[in-house]
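INFO batch 0412 | record 1 of 1 | parsing
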Amino acid sequence: MAILRGGTKIFGQDIRIGLPRDRSMNNINGDPRFKQGGQVGQGESTINRFIAEINQGEGMARPTRYMVVIQPPQKIMDMQDYMNDSQSPSSGSNDLESANIKRNVGMMCNSVTMPSRDVNTAASQQYGPQRRMPYAYSFSGELAMSFYGDKFLRQRMFFENWQKKIFNIQTHDMNFYDDYVGTMDIMQLGSFSSENDRDRVTYAVRLYEVYPQTIGSYDMSYGQTNEVVNVPITLNFRHWRNLTIDQVNSATVGQSFGDMPSIKPSKEFGLFGGILNRLPPEIQRAGRQVLSTAKRNLPIGRITGGRVFPPFL
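INFO prediction complete | emitting tokens
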């Protein structure tokens, strides 16, 4: 728009004059005055490189998006041994071995710590300054967790039942190690726009030789009216592995169960297809919509349903 505009009619003709706005800033990137300092707004800068790296990683990981899958030992004691009554261990929600209760315990985990791994070193000095030489690697061996407890505290009973596999509560004898260790997966989740922002596994580790070492206590008081019970649990484990880079069962990440989505490259079939693939993305989308409409509206496209359109498309 002009800063000042006016007009009049002379011999029936509409004559208008005006003062145009300053256009010196319309093409900043082409202005020779700015070329010494690089392009403005689109040049290489620290913040632009930082944003590009974040976009390449599709955003940042969130500590609130995670999932825990616990796999206790196969021969864990059932509810009949735990309650010492005649109720069948397969009686629905009372069965502490069922897949439902394992899924429930994983969903009720409100806090978990991602395990660490250390490289043990020792001083070595032969000549000059000493070096710290690695000689082994180790793990902390403990993992603190917390679980919401429902009205029946099934989450606490789940780990109590697991602990009963470690020792005999009547004879106080300790059982064999392999009979009470299990595994646990800790998964980082992330949303994908291609999946309607649904969470998918983006990172996952598996802990081996896991068993509940400590079932922690919690306080009860009349002053905690609007609070829920948090059951603290400390698990012991021997080591952990990354499910993807350590190739555990050929697992990858990116979908709901750890499978990397395959992205198929576009095929440069035909004259127009090859030209479209060399255009900017915005023009490519518009061009593909036009071609798709032509495929279905032209006679041969109607016959083939748009699936085959020789010889150029």
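INFO post-check: DSSP finds seven helices and eleven strands in the chain.
INFO record closed
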